[in-house]
Design brief:
Blueprint (H helix, E strand, L loop, with lengths): L17 H12 L10 H12 L4 H10 L4 H10 L12 E6 L2 H5 L2 H11 L13 E6 L11 E3 L2 E4 L3 H13 L5 E2 L11 H4 L10 H13 L11
Parallel strand pairs: 1-2, 4-5
Antiparallel strand pairs: 1-3, 3-4
Helix pairs in contact: 2-3, 3-4
The protein binds FE2/S2 (inorganic) cluster.
């Protein structure tokens, strides 16, 4: 078992941004009185989305909001691997699945690329690219292996080449997630071209959500092409 501890270097303070504070209060209001502590995971996750990692002041801030002892919040943050207890790459933190299906489909080569291009050590942000990486256990997308996760987005069906290109694109912006072989989801390759089955849209729900969110940020209307 890996011991997970909070980072030695801590910021002086933490507070939610105005929008995140409103969001956090709304989450807390979903739970019955005296059960507000159930909101601890969403609040921790939002703190991580805001800051990139979970600091001691963030733990204390959330504990105060939820009327919990800080140690109880720390127990949750240190138990789940999705929470980073040290700063990670500001541009992106890449979680490479190394479990058997992904390993059989080449995840070790992706890890090798991470070591060469980002850092020899896991969770050590690269000062040039602002990326960091770590190997994680199965992230539940085995049929599209090998897979990496960045935040809430999955990049699937990777090869050494497409992963290297992805790293280049990540440094420049936020590339489109989903199958890097252009599969819709986990159907056999070329299935929709060779069969009579037709789908309404050419992007699956998670890719669509990514496009909608990133386009909404730019204040533009998303137009997902229909496929007949
Ligand atoms: S083994 Fe990699 S997603 Fe399941």
């Amino acid at each position: 078992m890996i011991i997970r501890r909070i980072d030695k270097h801590q910021p002086k303070a933490f507070e939610f941004s105005r929008a995140n504070l409103i969001w956090a209060k709304k989450q807390i209001s979903k739970y019955p009185k005296d059960r507000e502590q159930s909101a601890v995971i969403p609040l921790l996750y939002r703190a991580q989305e805001q800051e990139g990692w979970i600091s001691k002041p963030a733990i204390e801030f959330i504990a105060k909001m939820l009327k919990m002892a800080p140690i109880r919040v720390y127990e949750v943050a240190s138990f789940y691997f999705m929470f980073h207890l040290s700063p990670v790459g500001k541009k992106a933190h890449i979680q490479v699945c190394g479990t058997t299906p992904c390993m059989l489909r080449g995840s070790e080569k992706l890890i090798e690329i991470c070591k060469q291009r980002i850092s020899k050590n896991q969770k050590e942000p690269c000062s040039k690219s602002n990326l960091s990486w770590e190997e994680v256990e199965c992230i539940g997308a085995c049929s599209n292996s090998p897979v990496i996760q960045i935040g809430s987005d999955y990049y699937e069906d990777l090869s050494e080449e497409s992963f290297s290109n992805l790293l280049d694109d990540l440094i420049e912006g936020h590339p489109e997630p989903g199958s890097q072989k252009k599969r819709f989801s986990s159907e056999p390759e070329g299935f929709f071209n060779s069969s009579k089955v037709k789908i309404e849209e050419n992007k699956n729900a998670s890719v669509k959500l990514f496009l909608e969110t990133s386009l909404r940020k730019k204040n533009k209307h998303v137009n997902v092409r229909k496929v007949k």
